[in-house]
Structure formats: structure tokens, C-alpha cells
Amino acid sequence: MAEEMSYLEFERPVMELERKIAGLKSSDHGGRLDLSGEIRILEGKCSKLKNEIYGSLSTWQKVQLARHPLRPYTLDYFRLILTDFTELHGDRSFRDDRALVCGLAMLANHPVAVVGQQKGRNLQENMERNFGMAHPEGYRKAMRVMKLAEKFGLPVISFIDTPGAYPGIGAEERGQAEAIARNLRDMSDLRVPIIAVVIGEGGSGGALGIGVANRVLMLENAYYSVITPEGCAAILFRDASKAADAANALKITATDLLEFGVIDEIIDEPLGGAHKDAAFTAENIKKSLLARIAEFKNLTPDEVAMDRYRRFRDLGTIEEGSPELKVRGSESKSKKIKRKKK
After folding, report:
1. Helix (H) or strand (E) holding 156
2. pLDDT by residue (tens digit) across 123-172?
3. What span, in angstroms and rounded, lies between the C-alpha atoms of 342 and 338?
4. Residue 340 in 3-state DSSP?
5. Which CA distances in Å does 293 have to 59, 95, 117, 215?
């Protein structure tokens, strides 16, 4: 059962082949029966099948990989790429929100501040972490740490992995919308570099609440969207089961978002997803983070803030031509318009 849980439905052909290979390897009868030829043939078939499946993933399949129960979470990456991590707790107003992990650490030779959403591996952990959906006190804690980073001139690294901010009554009573809006405003003005990495789900304002960054990076099989595919399908089609159709329409994959200029870089994952080799994925993230931090080495604090301001001002802007409007970041998809005569 545990083995089956590590495979998604579209991966079952791979699972069957890997089972056969494992069965042959374990049935060599003490070395008296040479099955190496058959094993090599099956391994070749399995490798080819993996390339076919993972080389042509649909948007919905990528969403499923982004939600994979074995996918590395924020604390996994903290352990793999950071040293001397010291967690900071509480928003100094209400309580500590364990759905958002914040603290100070070393990234190679760089002291940094880190914030990130954290999910749980089982029901108990998910109850404690609220399935990675932060309350307003989580966003206030994150901003407290970011302000601390600004005070000491530390870059901020943000790990995004949430289906969205928690929509419960208690969160609304304590100012969920105001907490996120305040983060959007204050992150815009922060005078140190902010590098965000979408490592799994990047859902709605819950993601953007720690995502107003100078550079936004995204893992190959993550998604970043204003709403979950299920939520979009429920609103548009009145049927949450049409989530796959909604996912296609939303254009939420890393490839789509890089084309639109919403993100700045796609970070490679191993074949089959980040959970297949967490150390490989973490090393790729680390290299990208160090390269992006180096971009701001010679900029003044004001220039860092202006860089972030310009990045977000450019999103969705249009360049007016005659007689076309060209969407910046997607010039090949310009649309003709007709002008009304007065």
C-alpha cells in the first residue's frame, strides 16, 4: 500500500515495470539463475517509458506532482541547503503560526532570512501545520522576520508551497485580508533583495503574501495560480471535477509563466519529480539562489527596492502600437483591436 501511494495514477505503468524488475532481481535463486539479460531489457523499457510519460506531462499531471505526498517541503530544503538555521516564532501580537516557518540561516557564506509555508506528512502534522495554509499571524510573523532582515541588510529567501491562505472564520476575524495586503505593501518597499521559490503549490493570495520578490523562481513541476484548479472549476463550470480543464485554461505551469514574464527562472527537477531525488533538486535550488543573490551585490538599498517595483509594474502591461497592442513578455501573442471613431 505504501508503495502504491508513492505513484500517481498516470505513473502506474512505470510502477508495474519497476515491480517486475524488483521481482526478477530478488529471484535469482542464490546466483544459480542468470536473469541479467531480462533485467536489462526491462530496465531499458522502463527508462523509455519514463521519458515518454514525464516528457509530455499535461498541466493537470504537473499539478498532481506539485501535490505529491512525498514531495520535499520547505523544512526539507532548509535542511538540505541551509546551515545554522534558527527558527523565529510568533507575530508578537497573537500566537505562532506553524504553517509558516521563519528564521535566520546561512546559505553557503551568505547570512539570509528565510520564510516558507510548511505542510505535514501525516494527519497529525497537517493539523499542526494547517495543511500549509497560514493564518494572519503567520503573515505578520513573516513580515516581522523580513523587517529584521532589512535592519541587518540580509537577503530574504521565500519558499512558496500552499493551496492558499486559510479562509476560516477565525482567520477572517483576525484580519486575514489586511495581513496579506500589508505584506504586499511592505514587501514592495523592502530595501533588501527578496528571492522567492515556488516549490510546490503557489495558490492565490496565500502565495503572494510572501511572494512579492525581486526574482521569482519556480520548480519544473510546481504551479502558481490565482486560484486552485478545483476552485476555478467550481466557479466557472459549477463542477469541481472539471479541475483538469480549468488547469489547462489557467496557464499555471512554469513554462507558461516564464513565457508571460510572471516568473524569472525554471529550476530543473529529476525525472519523475522532486521527490525522486530531493538532494539533486535542493542543489539546483541552491545554485539558482546564489546566482540571483549575486545580481544585487553592487546595488544600493534604494536600487534594490526600485528593481522590485519595476518588476511588478511591468507585469501585464501593454505596449501600444498601430494598430496592435502587444503584451509585454509574450510579443508573439499580440491581438489586433479596432478603434472606435468619435
Report:
1. strand 156-162
2. 999 999 999 999 999 999 999 999 999 999 999 999 999 999 999 999 99
3. 13
4. coil
5. 30, 32, 21, 9
Number of residues assigned to the chain: 342
Residue 32, pLDDT score: 64
Distance between CA atoms of 145 and 2, rounded to whole angstroms? Answer: 38
Residues 29 and 75: their CA atoms lie apart, in Å, by 43
Q: Where are the alpha helices (DSSP H) in the chain?
A: 2-5, 12-25, 36-54, 59-66, 74-81, 123-129, 136-152, 169-173, 176-189, 204-208, 229-236, 243-250, 254-260, 278-294, 301-314
Most confident of 38-42, 157-161, 259-263: 157-161
Average pLDDT, the chain: 88
The arithmetic mean of pLDDT across residues 245-262, rounded, is 93
Within 10 angstroms of residue 24's Cβ, the number of other Cβ atoms is 16
CA distance 297 to 320: 35
Which residue is listed with cell 504551479? 223
Strand partners, 215: 195
Kindly report the CA angle at 255 between 241 and 77, in degrees rounded to 5? Answer: 85
Nearest to 119 by CA among 13, 57, 45, 203: 203
Rounded to an integer, what distance in angstroms lies between the CA atom of residue 102 and that of residue 114?
A: 6
Sorting pLDDT into bands at 50, 70 and 90, what band is 240?
confident
Residue 284 has pLDDT above 70, yes or no: yes
Residue 324 CA to residue 342 CA, distance in Å, equals: 19
String of DSSP letters for 18-50: HHHHHHHHT-STTTTS--HHHHHHHHHHHHHHH
Contact 50, 10 (CB under 8 A): no
Report the distance separating Cα 319 and Cα 333, nearest Å. 12
| pLDDT at residue 332 in the model | 41
Question: How many Å apart are CA 176 and CA 133, to the nearest integer?
Answer: 11
* Burial group, residue 323, by CB count within 10 angstroms (0-12, 13-18, 19+): exposed
Read off the pTM.
0.87
